């Protein structure tokens, strides 16, 4: 199968022309005690969180954590067993002009193979009462204009992702809900997507993006919601999640005097098998000073800063999965003791 | 609702299915018209049977199979290609989606009926003129043409409902075509079962498109009067649409 590459996307996505996006409500998403039971399995279990307007929120969790089920309940595609999910205070099916309020891309394969990208978009323009030219505009916006008249069965995965993103922008909505939008994108595409998210959030839109590409999420997200086995395990701003998670790594021929000095200063650390010392601290000045005044020779002194991926694996792997998290130790201690903690 | 109909019509027009389906519909209509005109003229010339104008001018039913197929594709395609997700994102009311599809496919049925009707009339009029047979649009012909058009609309709705019930596209096609081509006729000749035949979809639509005769020549069954036959077939189509729509669209889209 011949795959035509799309034209390079615009480096700086441009705003949609005025006249769209009639819904000027705040764009707040509220998930309140949401539960979905499939048979005997609780796919989503008493989930509650809020996505603030004008923010990019990463919705994270391992496969089967309940992310997609949550998003589909939010969009009225799956009926919750209990609880509510609202956008602007109402459930999705009750939105007056849904495509002009919310743009959602749930999977990059919801296309009729015999339709061209342009036809696909025009169908939903018609359904939403938007002018047909809007389809051309959003294709241009996502860098797919050159493939507009190509049948979607000939699209690569990256092109499908772009087409799905284009569909979300048709109504110039205040809220964007994207499920794994980076799947299949090449590095250039991912870089473009990162700029795209920043641009959208900068316009005051609410972006909720589920992804397993944690580095990318950390680069663009203001907030993160971490889900495991259908339950919320952590939610907050990136700053809140990173508080107290930085780790100093110290190496040297004899660190015992430094360990004593650190203990006197109220700092605790652990000695690893390779002899290095790990100390939970947000900056290195104090350790450097204590090493100097105690005459300790150092071969390495560096700060391992917050890493969303590490936090994610800490919260979703091994003994700390799902229900066990209620009894979890402090985050820094988890990072020290969990095998996956230093990934 | 107008936007929804535009969207649904665009969905069908954006594939070539509607275009490819009209070719066999026109061909079947042409063949059926030619056969009926030839048979009627021959019978008239040889044994003096009056020209069967009603039969001659109501042969647009060749489009029925095409509209059954297009109707079946209406929802099965959405599930097969997962386009049901963007469809419901654009129109969250599932009832409106089904109604929008029903109205859109009714428009396609009218279009097919007009195209096949033109073919039917053109062949019949040219042939009858060539044989110096006078044209006569009495004998219930006008009502027959209207009923033929309505039958095509109902067939499209029946197909849409069948597709909503079965959901599997291939299975729905096989069931729909086999039923109208073979099973329906068998039901008309099987003892005991034949008593129920007039109330089956096949029996009801046959009664609706008949010239008021209450005895079906093929099955020798006492048929419903046309208007009741039409109402029974409409009831079948609505039953399938409502129950199929409920089953297909009330479920979680995951």
Structural class of chain A: alpha/beta
User: What is the architecture of the largest domain in chain A at the second tier of CATH?
Assistant: 3-Layer(aba) Sandwich
Q: Tally the helices of chain A: what do you get?
A: 12
Quaternary: heterodimer
Number of helices of chain B: 11
Distance linking N and C termini of chain B: 26 Å
Major sheet summary line of chain A: 6 strands, mixed
Q: Which structural category do the helix and sheet elements of chain B fall into?
A: mainly alpha
**What is the radius of gyration of chain A?**
24 Å
Percent of residues in β-strands of chain B: under 5%
Strand neighbour order, sheet with most strands of chain A: 5-6-7-3-8-9
What string gives the helices and strands of chain B in order?
HHHHHHHHHHH
Q: How many strands, which pairing sense, and closed or not: the largest β-sheet of chain B?
A: none
Residue windows where pLDDT falls under 50 for at least 5 positions of chain B: none
CATH topology of the largest domain in chain A: Rossmann fold
Map the helices and strands.
The complex is a heterodimer of chains A (343) and B (254).
Chain A: E1 29-38, E2 41-51, E3 56-60, H1 67-74, E4 82-87, H2 98-101, E5 102-105, H3 117-128, H4 133-141, H5 157-169, E6 175-179, H6 187-202, E7 206-210, H7 214-220, E8 223-228, E9 231-237, H8 238-242, E10 247-251, H9 256-264, E11 269-271, E12 277-280, H10 285-293, E13 300-304, H11 308-316, H12 331-337
Parallel strand pairs in A: 3-7, 3-8, 5-6, 6-7
Antiparallel strand pairs in A: 1-2, 1-4, 8-9, 10-12, 10-13, 11-12
Helix pairs in contact in A: 3-4, 4-5, 6-7
Chain B: H1 2-13, H2 17-47, H3 53-56, H4 64-80, H5 84-90, H6 94-130, H7 141-166, H8 169-187, H9 193-196, H10 201-209, H11 226-250
